Amino acid sequence: MKIIDAHSHYLPEEIIKLASFYHSGWMDIEGQLKAMETSGIEKAVLNYPTTDVHIKLGDEEKACKIYNDGLYRILKKYPHKFIGLGILPIQDKEKMLYEFKRCIKELGIRGISLASSYDGVYLDDKRFYPLYEQAQKEAVPIFVHTQTVNPIGFERVNDPLLTPVIEYIFDITICVSKMMMSGIFNNFHRLKFIFAHFGGVLPFLRDRFDTVYTMLRLRNIVKDLGKAPSEILKNIYCDTSAVKSKNILKMALDMFGPEHLLWGSDYPANKDIIGALKVVNELGLSQVQKKKILGKNLEDIFGLRLTV
Predict the structure, then answer these.
(1) Residues 229-239, buried b or exposed e (16+ Cβ, 10 A)?
(2) Structure confidence by residue, pLDDT tens digits, 225-271
(3) How far apart are the first and last CA of the chain?
(4) Could you give the CA distance from residue 214 to residue 42 in angstroms, rounded to a whole number?
(5) For residue 124, how many other CB atoms are within 10 A of its CB?
(6) Does the predicted model carry a pTM greater than 0.85?
(7) N or C: which end of the chain has fewer CB within 10 A?
(8) In the Cβ-directed half-sphere of 250, how many Cα atoms lie within 13 Å?
(9) By percentage, how much of the chain surpasses pLDDT 70?
(10) 81: closest CA among 194, 3, 24?
(11) What one-character DSSP code corresponds to residue 270?
(12) Burial 294-303 (b: 16+ CB within 10 A, else e)
């Protein structure tokens, strides 16, 4: 059974030189290819982990161009091994849509990578609507990665362990939840949204979302979403981001189902690819379900065809 990795990273050298946290291991594409071969991974999605390069450059558009051009060079060299997700300058509508068009039409990039927030602005903001309209029209999926620059709670707690473990994950949780409340998943129902890390802690909040929503609707405190939150959220796609706990994966399967769960390694942040794959095989899933999680779902999203 061939596999597509839904969540891996590559950063060009120009980005590495400027970024505060990332090191040369994040541009070692040859090392990733070896790891993929060892693990039986046929293709991998390359997305942007978010960096502070745009801040250091003082130019968001330039940072996006550097990254997208570097990604293009990898895709050109290894067209059958990687799926690229481009990034966009989001402060200006015209620049955002221009770079979107350049990514898709000129660079061979198959999807877009957004951060869960930008300086506290989440993806429910109407500045993103023109992008959603264009992406839906052209069937271009949007991958959402956790924001690593000033995520929610950063102003209160800035800790080298707590910030990435808790604040990154709650930032994407808030992102998905605000998108649900604003009606984006209904208004752009043909647009494929993929969220990293299970969309944060959503699987843990499923029952609480539904229970509290029902209670507040009876008192007319919250607007009518048309469906229970869990019914809306089960239609988004989420990746597993290297999780090796069977219990966590079972919760995610209960919420999203095998049709909307994507296996991802989070390479090179996580290099135990074998361990992350092993747990999928230990869940007692049918071959059809495993095939969906390990590649078929992504195959359908991107219109790919695996060799096996």
Answers:
(1) bbebbbbbbbb
(2) 999 999 999 999 999 999 999 999 999 999 999 999 999 999 999 99
(3) 7
(4) 44
(5) 18
(6) yes
(7) C
(8) 6
(9) 99
(10) 3
(11) -
(12) bbbbbbebbe
